[in-house]
Amino acid sequence: MIRYACNRPRVNAESIINQGLPTLGLTPQTLATPVNGFGVTIDTDMAVIPARELRPPRLTYQVGSANVRDGSWNILDVKFHRGARVSSWWVLVVRDGEGGFSGPDPALKGLVEGFAAKCKKSGIAMPNGMPRLLVTPPLQHISSDPSRTGAIDHIRQTIKTALAVKGQQKPGFILVLLNNRDNYIYPGIKRLGDVEIGVHTIHMQLSKAIGDPRKQDQYFSNVALKVNTKLGGLNHLVSTCCLSLKVPKLTCGYTRSARVHGYGMANKEENHDCRH
Question: Are both 33 and 97 inside the same structural domain?
Fold first, then answer.
């Protein structure tokens, strides 16, 4: 379903008209006899409805600005509007399959220090020094643990053993480093943190966190957004000039007479100035 939801409107519209309606027998050539007997006809043209094109929002930060374009923006050099405060945090290395880390490692140290520096630069108050490092035992391969219940039990035990130390307080969040992706480990850890243990968990894919420094910086920025939000910070504000309902009008939809415009704009007023 997600794959179809991510299609461009034109792709889905053509699929509905050229494949969906004939498959259901709802075109004039294939209209089923029972339906036809009731005098029911199906219009094969898409509905045309009035719509509005929203201006891209102007986002404000405590320091820096973001250029919003095509539904996304870059946050490499900004400071959050209100940074959260982290009293302590842990790093959990999940040893699942080949590659990844198995314990203290210069590359792991660099990754953790780099992420902490990004959080501080973004306005999050981070404690000094390295966080506590937890490492799971090697997890069973998915072939012998298809639902990953055994793997999740190992992860549960690793975290609970660390919390069982006398006087140990729960961390503000646990940064979980994953070197594999499946349909069980991530939601399993989320449930452990949210339901059983009561601690925030933030995940990183090592394939994205290690590599090109420029991409790594952007990835760290995206993860820092999640940390700040989970711990009560405020990432950005939307400028009030972009909240007005006075926006350009357009017509959306698809008819055979409007193919030249595609499945989107039939008429658009070019006016994106945020000022009143």
Answer: no
Strands 173-178, 249-253: parallel, antiparallel or unpaired by DSSP? unpaired
Summarize pLDDT for 126-136 with one digit per residue, the tens: 999 999 999 99
Q: What is the pLDDT of residue 246?
A: 55
Domain count, the chain: 2
Q: What DSSP string runs through 91-128?
A: EEE---SSSS-SS--HHHHHHHHHHHHHHHHTT-B--S
257 and 225 in a common domain: no
Question: Domain range for residue 198?
Answer: 81-234
Residue 153 inside a domain? The answer is yes
How far apart CA 222 and CA 192 sit, in angstroms, is: 23
CA separation for the pair 274, 256 (Å, rounded): 35
Backbone dihedral region for residue 39 (phi beyond 0: left; psi -120 to 50: alpha; all else: beta): left
Pick the residue with more confidence: 18 or 98? 18
